Amino acid sequence: MDVIIGLEVHVQLNKLKTKMFCPCSIDYHGDEPNTHVCPICLGMPGAMPVLNKEAVKAGIKVALALNAEVQPFMVFDRKNYFYPDLPKGFQISQYDHPLAWGGYLTIETDEGEKKITLKRIHMEEDPGKLSYKGSITTAKYSLIDYNRSGVPLLEIVTEPVMNSPKEARLFLNKLRIILEYLDVFDGNLEGAMRVDANVSVKGGGRVEIKNISSFKGVEKALTYEITRQKNLIRMGRTVKRETRHFDEANNITVSLRSKEEEQDYRYFPEPDLVPIYAEELIEEVKQILPEMPEEKRERFKKQYGLSDSFAKVLVMDIKMANYFEDVAKVVNPKLAASWIVDVLRGELNYRSKDFTFAYEKLKPEEMAKLLNYFENGDITEKGVVEVIRTKLDKGGNVDKIIESKGLFAIPKEEIERLCIEIIEKNKKAVEDYYAGKKQALNFLVGQVMKATRGRADPGETAKIMRIILDKK
Amino acid sequence: MLTEEDVYKVAELAKIEICEEEAKKFRAEFESIIGYFNLLDEVDVDVEPTFQVLPIKNVFREDIPKKGLSREEALANAKHVENGYFKGPKIVE
């Protein structure tokens, strides 16, 4: 059965310092409720909004990066509705003169590249946050925190062009990468990206799933919802057009009848704000638009001689890409890429950390030093991994860790001496080796490894052992 | 052209309860207000729409934080407060 998905993505421009229309700080995460508020974001009578210039520039940046047509003339409108998350009785948003029309981004699906086209991008203010004692359905009242009220928000609306929950996830991942490249967005902050998803299965009505608050939630909510709709259709029942809520704890969607009847927002131009003529701002932003993932990928291949697969992974996260470039200043770039992608990234994932953590715990200079030792044969592969783990978990100085753990590789002469010693001591195994038993060599190498407590490089040791045995 | 149904709908959107008598009264008043707008039909449609009557544009603020209200001040006018939160109605039925 055909599935059609469209997304409305709400993105907080959370790298800014202040709210959209007032100078309250948006650095409220973890703070007490209602401590980042003022008469403007509390909607007190007579308070007048003044637009944050950097928020508009950040919006333009995003729209340009998403290949959208940024509008030289923008207007803010009032979207009227009664809901306690907005104290004014309306949300300042954009209606028929938004930030941008159109645009697209490209995702890589199993069937190849796919362009996800956008309908529009507009700016608005984030509402406050409601919470409930117990669950949303059983609580007798809501508790409201307006710290979030007024945070600069972009709403990015896609065309209904996605055909699976997986495509929706790929789209959101790609969007996140781009937003982080633009340095306007930190996806790690709670509530940074919230999604409404529209989904329909052929033969059924369109269902909107409201306010999914995590990346993973989107795929789960859609998967559940599609199964639910398909089952209804199979049983010969109709899928009615409605709004549902994603219950994240139970991974299901539930029908929520809102007290607000058929939505009628009665948009009209916000009389407290003046129109924006943005031509100059757009030109200004074009000058500071950073290198985007695809360009970086091509540059990495050209400049550092990386394979496409390494370049592709490295550019998926701007912090990882920067980390790589810092290390590659001093170390063979291919070596750096493989250690960062294959080992460091895995060790970070295992600890649920990202490259911000790596920058703190294992600085690029330290990683470079470590890889230089490895390149010179001063430390084994196993030793490098050991140092990386210790640095991430306990910190400390690279040289001291190597020394205290005895990770400096054994010099070649020492390995040769040990090989001769082991050969003397294990006559039986040596005989077996000459008799053509391959395991005998493994046994002898194993003895050297044991004697060095694993510090000898096994490949190198086997090579030396064979040379000595074959000389006899 | 304007029905009492329309009046009830506007009242519902504004979360105002009205009685039948009021609906009748408002219907007549709405109609006379909307009558004024018919004047617009006499205007040349090629004219630029007015989004703002003030002759100014591009009013911006720099992205510099300023201290707002204390929590006590913020909650001072609220009738229903709990643990530093505003208490609001239950939304979902």
Please explain how this structure is put together.
The complex is a heterodimer of chains A (472) and B (93). Chain A has helices at 53-65, 165-181, 215-234, 279-288, 293-304, 308-314, 318-328, 333-350, 355-361, 364-375, 381-394, 398-404, 412-425, 427-434, 438-451, 458-471; strands at residues 3-12, 51-52, 69-70, 73-74, 77-80, 90-93, 100-101, 104-109, 112-125, 129-132, 141-145, 152-158, 193-201, 207-212, 242-247, 252-255, 268-269, 276-277. By secondary structure, chain A is of the alpha+beta class. Chain A folds into three domains: 3-283, no CATH class; 291-405, no CATH class; 412-471, Orthogonal Bundle (Arc Repressor Mutant, subunit A). In chain A, a hairpin with a 5-residue loop joins strand 13 and strand 14 (207-212). In chain A, helix 7 (318-328) packs across helix 8 (333-350), helix 13 (412-425) packs across helix 15 and helix 13 crosses helix 16 (458-471). The model of chain A has no long low-confidence stretch (mean pLDDT 92). By secondary structure, chain B is of the alpha+beta class. Helices cover 35% and strands 10% of the residues of chain B. In chain B, strands 2-3 form a two-stranded antiparallel ribbon. The longest helix of chain B has 18 residues, at 20-37. At the A-B interface, strand 2, helix 1, strand 11 and strand 18 of A face helix 1, strand 1, helix 3 and strand 3 of B.
